[in-house]
Each structure stands twice: as C-alpha cells, then as structure tokens.
Write a structure and sequence with these properties.
The protein is of the alpha+beta class. The chain folds into two domains: about 10-90, Alpha-Beta Plaits (2-Layer Sandwich), CATH 3.30.70.1280; about 90-180, bacterial protein sp0830 like (Alpha-Beta Plaits, 2-Layer Sandwich), CATH 3.30.70. The chain has helices at about 30-35, 60-75, 85-95, 115-125, 170-180; strands at about 5-20, 40-45, 50-60, 80-85, 105-110, 130-135, 140-145, 165-170. Strands 2-3-1-4 form a four-stranded antiparallel β-sheet. Strands 6-7-5-8 form a four-stranded antiparallel β-sheet. The longest helix is centred in the middle third of the chain and has 16 residues, at about 60-75.
Length: about 180
C-alpha cells in the first residue's frame, strides 16, 4: 500500500454513475459488476437500476473515480462519469440534512469537487420559485416542493464550463447507507 494514496483498511464506497439507465444506456447489473471488478474493488454490487455501484476498496474516493470511469468506458463503449463517496461521507451528509417541510423533497446534487461560489450562483440562478439550494461541500442539497420535473433544475445538463453533476434523492442515499453499514 502506498502511503498517502490508500486508506489503512478497505472501506465501503459508493459510486454514483451519471447517464446510466437513460436512453439506450441500460447495462445489466452483471455487466456493470464485471466492468469494474478487479484487485482495487472487492464485493462489487449494484443498488437499484439508477447507476449506483457499491464496493470495498483501499483507494480514496477521488482515486477510485478515474479507475472506474476508464473501466466502464472500455467495457460499455461510452463515457460514464463517476462520483465516489465513502459510506461514512454519506452518513455525515445525511446527518446535516433537516427534515423536509410539508410537500417538500430533498435531492442531492453531487459534484466531483466543491464547485465554488460562482458555479453555485449560476445553479441558483436556474432554480425555480419552489427550489431551495444549500451548499454542502462537494454536494448541494436541493429541496423542492412539488414534482422534480416541475423545477427548471430537473434537466441539470452541464453547460460549457459548468461542473458535471448527478442527482440522487436523499431517500435513496439513506437506503444505501442503511443497507451497507
């Protein structure tokens, strides 16, 4: 193990895959597992059909991302952006989220790294009247009233120069943490 590159012991990580199970990008569970399995990743599994990979690794999340992306692209034939977090990071994230108000729902927007104030301001300028955005480091908590599709943020397609993101409901994150802790 290289000092500074790996955890002292394997930890449970979650990779949120952008653009999986949309359009004609619908790989089977076994295809995803086979694509990423290797000495760096053990106990690989998927959660739901929304592009969530779970595995154990000694790699830090930021180091796991490019390895996963390269393997997925080589196997699937198209680019797949991965946002990796440890289960502990997700547990801490969830602990900082208040209960949603009546009719509200929490979504979590994941970034590769903290996008900074300018990118967050651009995102906020896109928000609708029923959207609230709260920065949380490498994530933004998006709380909306009404259906997600009713918000202008629903598309969240990256614009030139904007950080690439993926979104999961806080409830999905909670279920992943509960299942794998």
């Amino acid at each position: 193990m290289t000092p500074g590159r790996c955890h002292n012991a394997p930890v449970r990580l979650v990779a949120f895959l952008r653009g999986i199970n949309v359009g004609n990008r619908r790989p089977k569970k076994d295809e995803l597992i086979a694509a990423v399995a290797g000495p760096e990743f053990a106990d690989v599994s998927t959660y739901q059909a929304s592009g969530n990979l779970l595995f154990t690794s000694e790699l830090e999340p930021a180091e796991a991302e490019p390895v996963l992306e390269q393997r997925l692209e080589a196997s699937l034939g198209y680019e797949v952006t991965c946002f990796v977090r440890s289960v502990d990071e997700l547990r801490t994230l969830l602990a900082g989220i208040p209960e949603p108000g009546p009719g509200a729902k929490h979504e979590i927007i994941f970034y590769k790294s903290d996008p900074g104030d300018e990118a967050r301001a651009a995102l906020a300028a896109t928000a609708g009247p029923n959207d609230t955005l709260s920065p949380m480091g490498r994530q933004t908590l998006w709380t909306h009233v009404g259906g997600m599709s009713e918000s202008p943020l629903a598309a969240l397609t990256p614009r030139p120069g904007a950080p690439v993101t993926t979104v999961r409901t806080a409830a999905t994150i909670d279920r992943i943490v509960d299942k794998f802790t």
